[in-house]
Design goal:
The structure holds two protein chains of two kinds.
Chain A lengths: L2 E5 L3 E2 L5 E8 L8 E7 L6 E7 L4 E3 L7 E6 L4 E6 L8 E8 L10 E2 L3 E5 L2
Parallel strand pairs in A: 2-11
Antiparallel strand pairs in A: 1-3, 3-8, 4-5, 4-9, 5-6, 7-8, 9-10, 9-11
Chain B lengths: L3 E2 L3 E4 L5 E7 L10 E5 L6 E4 L13 E6 L4 E6 L8 E8 L5 E3 L3 E5 L1
Parallel strand pairs in B: 2-10
Antiparallel strand pairs in B: 1-3, 3-7, 4-5, 4-8, 6-7, 8-9, 8-10
The chains are: A mainly beta, B mainly beta.
């Protein structure tokens, strides 16, 4: 069973950089799939942040593109998110996920349990 | 870019059928596949429908998806409602650059 686990600081100060890691386990390698970050502000809906293909190709939400970097480490079976210059509006539950297609999860998508990140001084 | 608009909430009784709409603001709904996700309280979303009307294995056939070009919308229909279907439902599509767009979500109450 594929498992994804987010990790990183739960509290980030305004103007600083949010950094999260997603570790993949359970028999799935980081290869041959797309890997996404999606967030959900408190009480609100889902927002796509971006994805990375195992080759390193990335695609970002245009509204966040100037602040986002997603990277991948195939040797460690993990991928990461960096979001810089954060504000309170970046407070959310951040999910990492595996999708079959560039455009969506397809028949066998997997999500992490999500990690709460609060931006506050 | 386009937006996907969903009703904020719907409610129906157990055993009945409910339909949740997802209307695309510009461009054809048929141009890009639509996905549907279910999110029960306090849990991560799961895929109910992909590629407009395909169900992943394990998703009951009570859940079905369709698109309607005349209204430029996609629909998720849940038949034989169960209390366990009470959740938030999100539609999702993408643009020509494969940038994803989520609908705002619909809260389903089964009363």
């Amino acid at each position: 069973q594929v498992q994804l686990q987010e990790s990183g600081p739960g509290l980030v100060k305004p103007s600083e950089t949010l950094s999260l890691t997603c570790t993949v386990s359970g028999g799935s390698t980081i290869s041959n799939h797309y890997w996404s970050w999606i967030r959900q502000p408190p009480g609100k809906g889902l927002e796509w942040i971006g994805y990375i293909y195992y080759s390193g190709y990335t695609n970002y939400n245009p509204s966040l593109k100037s602040r986002v970097t997603i990277s991948i480490d195939t040797s460690k079976n993990l991928f990461s998110l960096k979001l810089n210059s954060v504000t309170a509006a970046d407070t959310a539950v951040y999910y990492c996920a595996r999708q079959e297609y560039a455009y969506g999860f397809g028949p066998s998508g997997y999500w992490g349990q999500g990690t709460q990140v609060t931006v506050s001084s | 870019n386009f937006m996907l608009t969903q009703p904020h909430s719907v409610s129906e009784s157990p055993g009945k059928t409910v339909t949740i709409s997802c209307t695309r603001s510009s461009g054809s709904i048929a141009s890009n596949y639509v996905q549907w996700y279910q999110q029960r309280p306090g849990t991560s979303p799961t895929t109910l429908i992909y590629d407009d009307n395909q169900r992943p294995s394990g998703v009951p056939d009570r859940f079905s998806g369709s698109i309607d070009s005349s209204s430029n919308s996609a629909s998720l229909t849940i038949s034989g409602l169960k209390t366990e279907d009470e959740a938030d439902y999100y539609c999702q599509s993408y643009d020509s650059s494969n940038c994803w767009v989520f609908g705002g979500g619909t809260k389903l109450t089964v009363l």
